Amino acid sequence: KANRKFHPDDSVINVGGALIGGGHFAVMAGPCSVETPEQVIETAKACKEAGATILRGGAFKPRTSPYSFQGMGPEGLELLELAKKETGLPIVSEVMDISQLQYFDNVDMLQIGARNMQNFTLLKEVGKLNKPILLKRGLSSTYEEWLMAAEYIMSEGNEQVVLCERGIRTFETKTRNTLDVTAIPMMHELSHLPIIMDPSHAAGMSRMVRPLSLASVGGGADGLMIEVHNDPSKALCDGPQALRPDQFTSLMKEVIALRQAL
Ligand code: PEP
Ligand code: MN
């Protein structure tokens, strides 16, 4: 169902009014995790102002260490909904397992994180929903495995899938992951599904987000996911890779100009 052969036209996915694919470009921006009402609302307003089309924010966080901040849970989703009311931006947030799905009724797009790309039970369950799914590429997954994960969702009836390249694990250790820009033309060739790029989790450092974003736009991506925090030094998760609102604003100007030049 994800195969371009049987579906020559680009899919266009509608996330609460924000379109992705077939020439429509989406920018998902916001904090790694929802932390406080002030943090999420201040950040959301700045993202909207700069031109983001979707607000991101994690309430359930898949942290490497069980002793790290695990997210605010259902309360975090409520704050995200509040930020949606304040800004009008649709929201995307990660669901880590089936038991959490009950809290996501008012979330516009569900994110399947890299670590869950092959959680087939979860994929089948979100495949039964009528809601767009953001499917992140697994840390060491091939294109074929990634597309098969999309098939798990689509074969249950939900064809609203957006792919997200967020960097893969390679032999390089200077960066958190290696952003695979080849995924853009390759996925466009193999599939009709939109593909967006997440330079924040790929690089792991804020100063690399701009060049990787511009490379992604130049490479034909259907959108970007960028972590933005109103005060990155105080972030409870992924602070080193978060852009400040002013950095995000200037990046957006360049992204828009580059898209116009393409
Ligand atoms: C995230 O988007 O905050 C996240 C945890 O992403 P990934 O699953 O790509 O690591
Ligand atoms: Mn993060």
Folded structure, characterized:
This protein has 262 residues and is α/β, with parallel strands linked by helices. The chain has one domain: Aldolase class I (TIM Barrel, Alpha-Beta Barrel). 33% of the residues lie in helices and 15% in strands. The protein is built from 8 helices and 10 strands. The protein has helices at residues 37-50, 74-87, 120-126, 143-154, 183-190, 199-203, 209-218, 245-261; strands at 13-15, 18-20, 26-30, 54-56, 91-94, 109-112, 133-136, 161-165, 195-197, 223-227. The strands form 2 sheets. It has an 8-stranded parallel barrel, surrounded by 5 helices. β7, α4 (143-154) and β8 form a beta-alpha-beta unit. α3 packs across α4 and α7 (209-218) packs parallel to α8. The longest helix is centred in the last third of the chain and has 17 residues, at 245-261. The two termini are 30 Å apart. The structure holds phosphoenolpyruvate and manganese (II) ion. Phosphoenolpyruvate (PEP) binds next to loops. This is 3-deoxy-7-phosphoheptulonate synthase. It comes from Veillonella rogosae JCM 15642.
The end-to-end distance, rounded to whole angstroms, is 30 Å
**CATH-assigned fold name:** TIM Barrel
CATH architecture: Alpha-Beta Barrel
The arrangement of helices and strands along the chain is EEEHEHEEHEHEHEHHEH
Shape by Cα distribution? globular
CATH level-four homologous superfamily name: Aldolase class I
At the first level of CATH, what is the class? Alpha Beta
Rg over C-alpha atoms, rounded to the nearest angstrom:
17 Å
Strand order of the largest sheet: 3-4-5-6-7-8-9-10
